Structures are given as C-alpha cells and as structure tokens.
Amino acid sequence: MRDSEIQSRIAEALLGTLGTSPDWSTADPYVLRHLAAHATAAGRLEELADDPGYLVHADPTRLLDVLGTVAADEHPLARTYLRAAHHLRDAGPHARAGILHTTAVEDEPDAAAHLPVTGARPLTARWAHLSPTDFHRTLTGHTGSVKALALTAMPSGGLLLASGGDDHTVRLWDPATASAYTTLTGHTGSVSALTFLPLPDGTMSLASAGADRTIRTWDLATGVGSILTGHTGSMNALAHATLSDGTAVLAGAGDEGNIRLWNLAKGTLHKLVYSSGPVTALVFVPLPDGTVLLAAAGSDETVRLRDPVTNSLTALRGHSGRVTTLAVTTLPDGTPLLASAGYDHTVRLWDPATATARGTYPCSTYWTDALAFVTLPDGTLSLADAAGLRHTIQLRDTGTGRVHIILSGHTGQSGHTASVNALRSTTSADGGALLVSAGEDGTIRLWDPVTTSTRPTTGVGPVGAVALTTLPDGTSLLACGGGDQDIRLWDPATGDHQEPTPDITLTGHDDEVHALAFTTLPGGAPLLASAAGDHTVRLWNPGADPPTPTTLATGDGSLYALAFTTLPTGAPLLAGAGWDYTIRLWKPADATTAPVAQVSLTSPVYALVFVTLPDGTLSLASAGDERAIRLWDPWRPSISTYTTLTGHTGNVHALAFTTLPDGTPLLASAGADPTIRLWNPASGTHTTLEGHTKPVHALTFTTLPDGTPLLASGGDDHTVRLWNPATRRALQTTPVSSAVHALAATGPHLAAGTTRGVIVFDVNQP
Length: 766
What we know:
Blueprint: H1 3-16, H2 29-41, H3 45-49, H4 52-57, H5 60-67, H6 76-83, H7 85-88, H8 93-107, H9 109-112, E1 123-130, E2 136-139, E3 146-153, E4 159-165, E5 170-174, E6 179-184, E7 191-198, E8 204-210, E9 215-219, E10 224-228, E11 235-242, E12 248-254, E13 258-263, E14 268-274, E15 279-286, E16 292-298, E17 302-306, E18 313-317, E19 323-330, E20 336-342, E21 346-351, E22 356-362, E23 368-375, E24 381-387, E25 392-397, E26 403-408, E27 420-427, E28 433-439, E29 444-447, E30 463-470, E31 476-482, E32 487-490, E33 504-506, E34 513-520, E35 526-532, E36 537-540, E37 550-552, E38 559-566, E39 572-578, E40 582-586, E41 597-600, E42 605-612, E43 618-624, E44 628-632, E45 643-646, E46 652-659, E47 665-671, E48 676-680, E49 685-689, E50 696-703, E51 709-715, E52 719-724, E53 729-735, E54 740-746, E55 749-754, E56 757-763
Antiparallel strand pairs: 1-56, 2-29, 3-4, 4-5, 5-6, 7-8, 8-9, 9-10, 11-12, 12-13, 13-14, 15-16, 16-17, 17-18, 19-20, 20-21, 21-22, 23-24, 24-25, 25-26, 27-28, 28-29, 30-31, 31-32, 32-33, 34-35, 35-36, 36-37, 38-39, 39-40, 40-41, 42-43, 43-44, 44-45, 46-47, 47-48, 48-49, 50-51, 51-52, 52-53, ...
Helix pairs in contact: 1-2, 2-5, 6-8
C-alpha cells in the first residue's frame, strides 16, 4: 500500500471520530494537532482548508507547517488564514475566530461570509472600506524599523531568512512556515546590513553590521557571535565572495568612506580600500571569466567596480544623486546584470563585464531604498524596487522597463504610508518566486508576486478623523476624513461584507482633515465640524443640498482637535485647537464666525474634550506636547486659571469623557508612553491601563446594550482594544491591518480610522 493511501486512511479514521457533521470544538487534541500533517501526506489538505471550523480549532503551528502547500489563490479561507498567521499562533479558538473574521472583512471579502461570527465577543467587524493590499504573509517580532534582510538556501533544501533593525537584534526565520527560529543579540545599535556566509563544510554562518561600528559573525548552530572591529563609522553594507585567487572575503563599508575586506578564514583584515565618500551599498559581481568585482556606491553619485585582486577600478557614471542601493543577478547566458538606484528617481541597469549602461528607467517621485531581482515562474526576469515614503513595491520587466506588478501592504505608524527599507528574493521550493520586504512599520512581508488579492481598488487612503451621530429617525451617520482632503458620509449599518457607497462627499478643505465632531442643533438637525491642515474649521449641514460650509475664524496653524458640548440653552459650544498654540471657542448658532473666547498656550494641542463634574461645572480638557492634561473654565480661559493632571511620560494624543452609572466622572487620556490613564477630574486621581505596545492615538467611550460603559482605544500597534472602565479590565483585543488613528462610537457601532481607511464594528453584548 502506498504511503498516500495509508495517510488517507489515517485521515479518514481521524475524521470519523467527529461524525458526519464535525464539531471541531469537541475534537480530540491529537486530531487538532496532527490531522493537517496526515491530510497533507494524503493530498487532502485542501478539503480541510475550506472548513472554517477546522481552521479556527486546529493547532496553528502544526497547520501553518503545511498550509503553504495549498494554492492560496484558489482557497480564500486559506488565504485569510495565511494573512493572519502572525496573530493566530498565540490565540485560542475563540480569539482566532474573531481575528480571521476581521482579516476577511478587511481584505478577503470572498472568505468573510464563510467565517463564523460569534456574539460572544463584544466587538465584531461589520464592514471595511480600505485601500487594497496584495496577498502576503507577515512576520512580526521586531520592536522598531527593520533595516536589513538576508535570504539563503540551506544545505537541507529549505530557506533561511535573517532580519535586523533598530531594536539592535538579528532574527532568524523559516519563510516556508512564516515562523521564528531565534533572536541573536549583541549589537548595541541599529543593525543595517546582513549577509549569509557559506562555510567550507557546507554549513552557513551569518554576518551582521550596523550603527555600533562592528561586524559580528554568528555561528547559527549556537547563536554565538565573534566581532570584527576597525570600522570608524556606522556600517551600511556587507557583501561576501570568494575571489579569483581563492580567498574568501567579507566586505564591509559605511559612513567612514573606507571599504574593509576581511579574510574569513583568518578573521583578519585582508585589504583596506579607500572610497570618495560614505558608502551605502556593496555587492560582489561574478564575471564569466571567473573574475569577481566589488561594486560600491554612495554619496558620490557613482557606482565603482573594483577588482580586489588587481585593484583595477572602473566608474559607472550617470546618476545625478546619491546612490542608495545595488542588486546583481546572472542572466541565463552567464552575463552579469547590475542594477543601481538612489536619489535621482531612476533605476539604471549595467553590464559590469563591459562597464556599459543597459537601460535607465524612471522609478518614483521619491528616492529608492531597495532593489532585488526576481525571476517569475514563467522565466521573466523582473526588478523589484521600493521607494522612500512609498509603501508599494514595483516589479518591472528588465527588458522593457515596464512596471507590470505593484505590491502594497506595508503601512505606517505615524499616519503616513511606511517606506520599505530592504528587499530580497529567491525561488521557493515549489518553483515559485518569493519576495521578502521589510520596512519602517517594523514588519517583514513574504510575497508571491504572482498571487494577488481579490479585493478591488477603492482609492481610499489614510483616515485620520471619524465622527458618528444618531439622526432624528434613529439611524446613524458616520463621517470620515483624511489625507484626500474630502469628508465622506456613510450609513454605518450598511455593508454587511459589501463595499459601502458614500452617500455624500463634502469638499472644501485643501489639506488633510485631522478632526471631526458632530453635535445636534436644537431642532434635531445634525451639525458637523471639521478641522484640517489648511488652518480652517468648517461647519457643515450634512443634509443640505449642496452642503456649503461655514468657515470659522482661526489662526495660522494646522488644526488637530475639536470638541462639542451642549449649553443649558440647548445651543452648541465648539472648541478647536492645534499647531497655532491656541484654544478657541465658538457658538455655531450665532451669526458671527469669530471665537467667543480663546487662550494662548506654549505648545501644540492634539486633543480636546468637554468634562462635566458632579456639581454640574463644565470644564474643557486639553492635551498635547506638554505631557499633561489641563482643565479649563471655558468661560474664563486663562493661562493662570487651569488645573493640571500629570502622569504621562510622553505626548498626549487622545482624550475621552463619560459619566459612569454611579455618577462618577471619568476622563480617559492616552499617548506616546503608551498607557491609558483613567482620571477622576474632580479629585485629580487616576489609574493606569496597560496593554498597548506602541503609541495610542485614539479613544472613545461606548456602551453595551445593557448600559455597561466601555472604553475603546487604538494606536500604532495595529489593535483596537475594549476595556471595562469600571473594573479596569481588558475585554477584547482586535488586531487590524494598520495603525489606528481615530475612533468614534454611537449606538451599536464603533468606527476606526486607520492608515488604510475605515473599519466599522458592531458592539455586542458578550
């Protein structure tokens, strides 16, 4: 009997323990751990990959060991699982169900309808309107920007990936299973260069270098590193080769401007090569005659080819700016092909054997940080490039220069898209192309450039402001604003895994919208206020046709914060502040656009909220760069009459206020430190909520159907978190695909503005 038949019978036997309608929650632990391996050996894993119950309950580590064998482009549930894998390994079945559902709502609409939605979780994704990301897997673990990658084939036939970055660590990964092997520590600064070193016995070691001016070579079996010293500046580049005279060397260079070649066998300096300025990139180029050239580039706008044995030097000129990156490959006929790019917005191809140019192509409106040659399954040779401040990766045909694939997925943590710092490529075990990228968002992404997402392009960009209100008929209205300067209005109840269509778009701002706030006028009509980088605050009647805004008098600075309250007369009072260091108050119902009061400060304001104390006293809370919260009397705002709440150790980005059922006022604050503080503004006392791992940008209070108040928070750690403020207990952490910069809630809906767009959640009774 063949092995596949044996494995098929084992898989059948294991499935038989579950009956005809499997309840995976009651499955034997052996089944959940080992069924994936047996089904793979039997050629039946695709059946399980289409079963949402199995995906939720199966052991993630064991499943991810084999799930990569399933054709992701044909199985949306498997594709969703692979997208979310970095969140699933440490989660239980209940949490995995929520993570998979949220991932599907964000990026895999074909899978969303098939994934279970459980009412046992207080927060469930309803719909999302996001800029698209192509299918990829994500590796997380670095706590800062990732600056360097190295990728190699191991003697065993598998692949090994190394990464390094601002957290001073080098991490080793298995790209096949998207899992971590180990972390190498020892560097005392950012790691910016990596290369694998083949050893005479057929094994591999790894070299790393960076800001601490050292090169470390690592024994991958023991994790022990040895140090090469002598460089006098930060290291930017490493490359290795065996020279034509048989010497195995490691080249290192950086800001000092000199290139040092180290003899790997002896661990000593082999040669010192002087350069004409800081070096940003190194690659060795093998020629057909066996000669090995060292290509170096940097601030002198030149690519220099040097024979390390004879010291002959050739300069490749044409760039008109700093050259930041190099890549090399060998064509089928044995001819080397060298690519260079940098600050002049071009990619240049060279024949190093003849020192001639083979093509020049425009690549971006930004500088280029990384290049990698990619061979696609059909044999097409492409060149991948990643540009600074552009979150996409472009693949162009090296023969025509035409861009034929664009990959998007890296997202920023500051509200902007994140730059990609490093690229590496190889051929995977199944013959496909594997492209690896790393960037400022602290992640590593694994791409199959041919397999892309099914999500349509929507044109939505970062959403930095959201607001929700309840209309007189009981329905809700959501407003979103961000980098495209427009404000879009939605019905938050619509979508249901469909792309929502905006009912109205409000245009008028000519810079990014930073803040939105709703209030209700005495007659019941909604009034929307918006603040933007164009130094204006505008008032909108969303129901007007056309919705023409009223512009309020402001100062000379971007506006970042708005807050409404309702006065005893029923009239609204609006507060606004930002980078002009001034808080202003307006009465929107009055005929005048001038502020009724204002106070000048000494630093920017990022957050405002009105606070009502138990005795009915109205205060205005403000926060920003001063790491403190100030409580003002809105009728007598004065630099000498405020109360200060201190405790944060970083800038404060967000404020929210509610009154608990027992009448206790509660003020929430959050920011860069990255804690959440819950204050009693009457007494000045506070407690601290910890859980976020990066700066928190957004807070809002909401209420469960039974009246229980909840606090929602979001930030740069790509999570939306729910807390019970009365018990100070975390209720749910929901990972999302990008940084969260705004939150708003009303009734059963919670809206999150992210660097990719907007997500709407249902708030459920657990």
